[in-house]
Amino acid sequence: MPASDQPKEDLIEQKCLLEKYTHRSCNKVFCQPWQKCIDGTCVCKLPYQCPRKGAPVCATNGRSYPTYCHQKSFECLNPGTKFSNNGTCTSEGNFNVSLHYGSTTTEGIVQVKLVDQDKNMFICKNSWGITEANVVCFDLGVPQGALGIQRRFIIPGDLRINTTECLHVRCRGDETSLAECTFTKGRTTSYRALAGVVCYTEDADSPTSQSFQCVNGKHIPQGKACNGVNDCGDQSDELCCKGCQGKAFFCKSGVCIPNQYKCNGEVDCITGEDESGCGEGRRPKIHKGLGRSDPGGETEEIEVLTPDMDSERKRIKSLLPKLSCGVKRNTHTRRKRVIGGQPAKVGDYPWQVAIKDGEKITCGGVYIGSCWVLTAAHCVRPSKFHQYQVWTALLDWLKPNSELEVQTVQRVIVHEKYNGSTYQNDIALIELKKSVGKKDCELSKSIPACVPWSPYLFQPNDTCIISGWGREKDNQKVYSLRWGKVKLLDNCSQFYSNRYYEKEMLCAGTDDGSIDACKGDSGGPLVCEDINNVTYIWGIVSWGENCGRPEFPGVYTRVANYFDWISYHVGRSLISQHNV
């Protein structure tokens, strides 16, 4: 979704920039396989938490690790220990990178010594970019990466005559050492075709009014933000975009990624659309060995020399546990159109539950897996847990259907900061009792909705679905489960001034108010479906005024804000679709 016709300064979402998102911010990006998401930040796993399958690697501390993931997780806990080479450690197995012919130690022509090669070699310029240059500077201890790759260096005459070989290198940008990038042997006919780099220093930096300031303190030209290239080195220039310029792909979450990441077999947008609609014929073919050639005829790529650690990273990701949530076993055709809603059929909303208090169904809830149900805090009291029943697969509570299953309650957990006056933190968990002799709850007719980990999975104007047994706007009772489509709304404080808390709450409704949640729907789900047809519990029916009027949209608890709270109680492995 290019935005070349949009002014470059308008491409940046200023409100988002205040959050200071980087490549470690799991609200915006996926964590690496050796990391997990805690409080919105990718942090290192302990090494034993990595998948066991894989090729052994050697690190710069001389130790062999069973997989690349183990080595990387150890490295981020001990930054001096970097990847050295694939396989077992040998005495001569040290990768080396250095700069030559510059006026300072932080600039020059890039030279590397590969582990299994007997001589130092230079890098080919035509396959060289800021992504690779950043990694070189990271390797040399410059945390901001590279300032640039364009500078003339004085090269000795004998080098000009004898330069016949160079190395192509391809990096993803999140490597901490150039040793993790993929090297290919090449030939060059000109010393002018060798790659150089100028690493960032505060002395060399010249910020202007048109500069973009990266989270790491580096300044880049404003025109390089939102172009799909990680110029900052910490990706902060690509994470708060309203659109993309140049050859970049725009993720709905406000992230610009390189266009070649589209349909590459790996989900890079947290919203998944980069791998949507990709038939086998649309996936790029990867040719190993022969590859890029220089339009000027100065270099040629001829042989792969190192293991592809990017492929190894992708392979490790495929070994991580997958959750089964948010996908129905069978689907019904959606009808055009909870107030103004339509009756549901069996299997339409397999995550919907009813909470029965005594003789009445007082609230709804949503099943999130194992023995856990999510609902609103104002619906339940921990001291009354023994009075509650949870009914699953229910359609009509006057005429219970044969699929109905009745669950008893083990305990109720209300958010410790729930405020009954303001409805802040209006969220609670219900743990169901396990069957006698069973290790887990068996809800044969239910399918859990996925719990969102990022507030950027869905955006204002996205269409989502509410469901429940709430009253109609004339206060008429409803006995059958109804559903309706609503749109997520922005700037809801205009409707509820001084009572709407954006971090904890969200609004949804229709232009005419014809579909809305009402009394009795409380605790029930507002679910949204992503581009891959996976359903997330985006909101919990919380409060509102004057059911069914457009100037008073329904207010919901923003579930993504409580991912860590939920995972603390139910266990991260139960609800973590990603970043486990």
The geometry reads as: elongated
Q: For the terminal residues, how far apart are their CA atoms? A: 30 Å
List the strand order in the largest sheet: 25-26-27-30-29-28
Main sheet summary:
6 strands, antiparallel, barrel
Structural class: mainly beta
Helical fraction equals under 10%
Strand percent estimate: 25-35%
Number of discrete helical segments: 7
* Total beta strand runs: 30
Could you name the ranges where pLDDT drops below 50 across 5 or more consecutive residues?
A: 1-5, 283-297, 331-340
Mean pLDDT: 84
Radius of gyration: 28 Å
Keywords:
580 residues; mainly beta; six-stranded antiparallel barrel; 30 strands; elongated; disordered N terminus
How would you summarize what this structure contains?
The protein is mostly beta strands and 580 residues long. The protein is 9% helix and 26% strand. The protein is elongated and about 95 Å long.
What order do the helices and strands come in, and which of them pair?
Blueprint: H1 14-17, E1 35-38, E2 41-44, E3 57-59, E4 64-65, H2 68-77, E5 83-86, E6 96-100, E7 107-113, E8 121-122, H3 130-139, E9 146-148, H4 157-162, E10 165-170, E11 182-188, E12 196-199, E13 211-213, E14 219-221, E15 248-251, E16 255-258, E17 299-304, H5 309-319, E18 342-343, E19 352-357, E20 360-369, E21 372-375, E22 388-392, E23 405-414, E24 428-432, E25 463-468, E26 482-489, E27 505-509, E28 525-529, E29 535-543, E30 554-558, H6 563-570, H7 572-575
Antiparallel strand pairs: 1-2, 3-4, 3-5, 6-7, 7-8, 7-12, 9-12, 10-11, 11-17, 13-14, 15-16, 18-26, 19-20, 19-22, 20-21, 21-24, 22-23, 23-24, 25-26, 25-28, 26-27, 27-30, 28-29, 29-30
